[in-house]
Design goal:
The protein contains 25 helices and 15 strands. By secondary structure, the chain is an alpha/beta fold. The protein has three domains: about 180 residues, Rossmann fold (3-Layer(aba) Sandwich), CATH 3.40.50; about 90 residues; about 170 residues, no CATH class. The strands form six sheets. It has a four-stranded mixed sheet with strand order 1-2-3-4. A hairpin with a 5-residue loop joins β3 and β4. It binds one RNA strand through α6, β8, β9, α8 and β13.
Length: about 550
RNA sequence: GGCCCCAUCGUCUAACGGUUAGGACAUCAGAUUCUCAAUCUGGCAAUACGGGUUCGAUUCCCGUUGGGGUCACCA
């Protein structure tokens, strides 16, 4: 291609503006002064308004890798696709990462500011930099304009499929790879849009090798695709491929941690780096988190079908995020679980993370039950103070009625929230803060009375005869003494149960089931449901003590 | 379809070529002076299949089957 033609293209790409030379750009990005072995990692989400749980997984790995080597963890925003960008998404990403304690050392910060000397950290702000490298490639004959329309491209793919050939823009299918200057000039004159494509020198017949820090030694065919480097629209923004290589080179990334879905395009990225004359990167392709689909079989966690794929879900349900992170860490490193058991109070960042242990992980399935298990443990271990704070904070935001009731009598609420917490065997019935209403609303008369009958109670009413219910309550109240201690209280309940026709001895009940209306457990169940509207609660004595005599009497009579 | 990755309980996983194939979650049973998801005890539960190599294979090799990823001017 003649110099003249190249100049025309450069002018079009840059819009006539001066474009820096590579050396001028690279001068602004000096080598980092970091200790031996320090890793510079980067997490690069797109601002689509959706943060995938798998992204948190990858971000966590990035942060840990940098953290434990005294390196740098960069948060870069990849917004080269303006069509997909959602307003406010950038802030959302920063906030959600911060909530997981995954704020970056460099780049976008939780408060929306940007820090670091290797910026800009938003790709759309780096357009001219990409242009510099694209033009460098063009000048050296490693890039060329392609004027093919979408239709033509699709046509070609159809053709390839019909001929059972590998689809793609390569070899003889690379429509504009070997056009003459005249043809290019003609297209330019006609004002046709064009993308700047990479001129690959690879061959699909030849094989190449690279080492993946997680997958190990890989051997794959070379890249031979002439992929687009710069898009055809007036933004003149680069594609991911160019942006990745340029940014990570300039920012001094030492390891590219990214989802496994990038594995197939790694040969391309390696060739691109070579074409630019820069050192190729070390890659670590992390497994993708999956879920069992309704159709059966594993599939990628999808944004539309699985609410839990979106990190917003975890925030909304208000799981303690440390637990979610612990679960994720356990997925990544199987020895984490043991470590965590031994160091339950340690900061998760103290865990020595290893990429190596990810080798056998293949798109693990998200196990909500296990996450909840972690969450319950986490909450059970929390200090009472912390627990109260979280519960109240959630209620204030999401259940104002309950919150107001709680605040109306702080001492009472304090007692309610402390039930069966602490000690060796704390209850584990709260897995997320949004469980609060379910767990605590029955302690408050206003809500207990005004709310529709809780479901447990509705079912129960159908099961147990109404008269029987009042008989049981009556019998119970006859012997009820609010000031009695627990043992006495229990003895009194037994007395009441017996007089109402319930068996005290399980064996006896088993032997003569017809002689009794039920066992002591059944008796207690009726009391429990009348008192709380639930079939599962902490122990009755404690509840009654906290509710107080008046409430107990009101509810049981 | 081409290319790539992967194959141990339902799930996440552990096991220098020699283990009664281990753990965690889930599940089931029993225990705990009333419920319970808490606690304790116990149970069920896996090396996809077929060939090699080897005294010996979950482990190494080959094939089959199965699953996943990817083949965009999306990242």
């Amino acid at each position: 291609m003649s110099e003249e033609t190249k100049q025309r293209i450069i002018e079009l790409l840059s819009g006539g503006a001066e474009v820096s030379t590579r050396s001028a750009v690279e001068y602004r990005y000096p080598a980092r002064e970091l200790p031996e072995g320090a890793e510079v990692t980067r997490f690069c989400p797109s601002p689509t308004g959706f943060v995938h749980i798998g992204a948190i997984f990858t971000a966590m790995i990035c942060k840990r890798l940098a953290g434990q080597t005294n390196g740098v963890y960069i948060l870069r925003i990849e917004d080269t696709d303006k069509k997909r960008e959602v307003e406010g998404a950038r802030e959302l990403i920063a906030e959600q990462l911060a909530a997981f304690n995954l704020q970056a050392d460099e780049g976008l910060q939780a408060d929306g500011t940007i820090s670091g000397e290797y910026g800009p950290y938003v790709q759309s702000d780096r357009r001219d930099i990409y242009l510099t490298y694209a033009i460098d490639l063009l000048e050296r004959g490693r890039a060329y304009p392609c004027f093919a329309s979408m239709e033509e491209l699709q046509e070609a793919v159809k053709d390839q499929q019909a001929k059972k050939l590998r689809p793609g823009y390569y070899g003889e299918w690379a429509l504009w790879r070997d056009r003459t200057d005249e043809e290019v000039l003609q297209a330019l004159d006609a004002g046709k849009k064009f993308v700047l494509r990479f001129r690959s020198e690879g061959s699909h017949q030849k094989r190449m090798q690279f080492d993946d820090a997680i997958k190990g030694q890989m051997e794959v065919p070379e890249n031979d695709l002439d992929v687009p480097l710069i898009k055809s629209d007036e933004s003149r923004l680069p594609t991911y491929h160019l942006a990745h290589v340029v940014d990570d080179f300039l920012m001094g990334a030492t390891i590219i941690t990214r989802g496994e879905e990038w594995l197939p395009s790694t040969p391309l990225h390696i060739e691109l780096a070579q074409a630019l004359g820069i050192k190729t990167f070390k890659y670590a392709h992390t497994p993708v988190i999956s879920i069992v689909g309704a159709e059966g079989g594993k599939r990628k966690l999808s944004k539309r079908k699985d609410p839990e794929a979106d990190v917003a879900y975890w925030h909304k349900a208000a799981y303690p995020l440390k637990a979610v992170k612990a679960y994720l860490l356990g997925l990544a490193n199987s020895n984490f679980e043991d470590w965590y058991k031994e160091n339950p109070d340690a900061d998760l960042d103290e865990f020595e993370f290893s990429l190596d242990k990810l080798k056998t992980s293949r798109s693990p399935l998200l196990d909500m039950k296990k996450v909840e298990d972690y969450a319950k443990d986490e909450i059970a271990r929390m200090s009472q103070e912390h627990f109260n704070k979280e519960i109240l904070a959630w209620c204030e935001l999401h259940d104002k009625t309950l919150f107001d009731e709680m605040m109306a009598d702080p001492e009472y609420t304090k007692a309610v929230l402390a039930i069966e917490r602490g000690g060796d065997k704390p209850r584990k019935d709260v897995a997320k803060w949004s469980d609060a209403p379910e767990q605590f609303r029955y302690y408050y008369d206003f809500i207990f009375d005004s709310s529709v009958m809780p479901k447990a109670q509705c079912d129960f009413v159908e099961e147990v005869d109404l008269n029987e219910q009042s008989d049981v309550c009556e019998a119970f109240m006859k012997n009820y003494d609010h000031s009695a201690d627990k043992d006495t209280w229990f003895e009194n309940m037994k007395k009441s149960a017996e007089s109402a026709g319930y068996a005290l001895d399980r064996k006896e009940l088993k032997e003569n089931p017809d002689k009794f209306k039920g066992g002591l457990a059944d008796f207690a169940k009726i009391i429990r449901v009348k008192l709380t509207g639930k079939t599962r609660t902490p122990d009755l004595y404690t509840i009654m003590q906290i509710l107080g005599e008046v409430r107990v009497k009101n509810r049981l009579s």
